[in-house]
Design a protein that fits this description.
By secondary structure, this protein is α+β, with helices and mostly antiparallel strands. It is built from two helices and 18 strands.
Length: 237
């Protein structure tokens, strides 16, 4: 295969990866707390002894949008949303994770948990306790949780010290391969949920663009294959 063919194949591979990312964004356009994801394409020049240098494309870096999603009022007692750059911290079997999805509930044991049963952490990084016999629950803008007028604790708001150390896990969960610190800015809203920040119209438009670009690349490869086959046939006559 000639240089043009290798370069086109590298581009096709990147387009396939981006198509998967865009399709996942569209599938999660209604997922609470979901963050839209994209791919960053990079170019590098590859050469070998006795061969012409060629430009190759690579799309391996995932870029997550941290734009605020739309807030929807639910009036749910344990539905919480965050205004600002901060995250809830939850305890999973794999360790502590950050999330913007605040659709919580309480267990019979009094734990505040996510829909997957992961315990929500307080400002000190310990599980929050919610009395099962309390008549009313209130949460202040700073995350202070009260039951029947008595303070119980404070919902923790956190953020990574360096954003590039954060990696997506399980849709709305993020793993941090670095230090996590309390978020000084951020406001907790009770009875609200933050929606996905995916712009579905833009994502569908991008999907069409990717499909057309892939088809153009495929057409080029087919034409190039036919040209090489014809050249070989002429040589062996």
């Amino acid at each position: 295969m000639e240089t043009a063919g290798y370069a086109t194949l590298s581009r096709q591979t990147g387009l396939m990866r981006e198509m998967r990312v865009v399709a996942n964004n569209i599938a999660n356009s209604a997922t609470t707390g979901y963050r839209s994801e994209g791919l960053i394409f990079s170019e590098y020049v590859q050469s070998a002894p006795g061969q012409q240098s060629m430009s190759m494309a690579r799309a391996n870096i995932h870029n997550t949008s941290m734009e605020q999603g739309q807030l929807t009022k639910t009036n749910g007692t344990f539905d919480f949303a965050i205004e600002g750059d901060a995250f809830f911290m939850v305890e999973t079997p794999q360790g502590q994770r950050l999330t913007r999805s605040g659709a919580f509930s309480s267990t019979a044991q009094g734990d505040l948990v996510t829909m997957d049963g992961h315990r929500v952490m307080d400002a000190g990084g310990a599980p929050l306790f919610v009395p099962t016999d309390a008549d009313s629950f209130q949460v202040g803008s700073d995350g202070t949780l009260s039951a029947n007028g008595q303070p119980l604790g404070q919902i923790g708001l956190f953020k990574p010290v360096e954003m590039h150390t954060m990696s997506r896990e399980d849709g709305v969960m993020f793993r941090v391969d670095g230090d996590i610190e309390p978020a000084l800015e951020g406001r907790v809203l009770q009875g609200f949920l933050e929606g996905s920040n995916v712009n579905a119209i833009q994502q569908v438009s991008r999907m069409i663009e990717i499909q057309r670009a892939y088809e153009m690349g495929q057409s080029f490869l087919t034409t190039e294959d036919e040209r090489i086959r014809a050249a070989i046939k002429n040589l062996i006559k």
